[in-house]
């Protein structure tokens, strides 16, 4: 193959590439604002087109492999999470279907995960009763107390994964650099309550 032919093949492949997201179930294009499903088998969030998301109602298919991620966002008053053993100021907590709670914090390598102490979680829920309404596996308590922030939210799990992606994308060097915390602050500034 000549260098001109190789260049045409590369250009042709680049022209076919798009930044359009696709439904992870059927392959249809999805708009930038679309719903997500939690794949319980691999604990990963999948993009869903409107028809596929309609197959999974928030209350209907809760026992199947795929769970529709709700859209509820609720700003909470400050929640005392010190007893949960969070070593950093940015973390999220997911209640599992079996009652356990996993704690996660974003890092440049992805989300670090550990199981929260059951009694400590029970104490947090007693102090903040809305946390008792967390949908297992698909909603989380998202906390940002890094620097001078005081943000506590009930959010869909996909919001938590967005924070993990922001940290991975923006982190530089050992301390995070100058871009990561402004990007995290912007994420929280753009959160809006949705019942």
From TrEMBL:
<dbReference type="Pfam" id="PF19372">
    <property type="entry name" value="DUF5947"/>
</dbReference>
<dbReference type="InterPro" id="IPR045991">
    <property type="entry name" value="DUF5947"/>
</dbReference>
<protein>
    <submittedName>
        <fullName>DUF5947 family protein</fullName>
    </submittedName>
</protein>
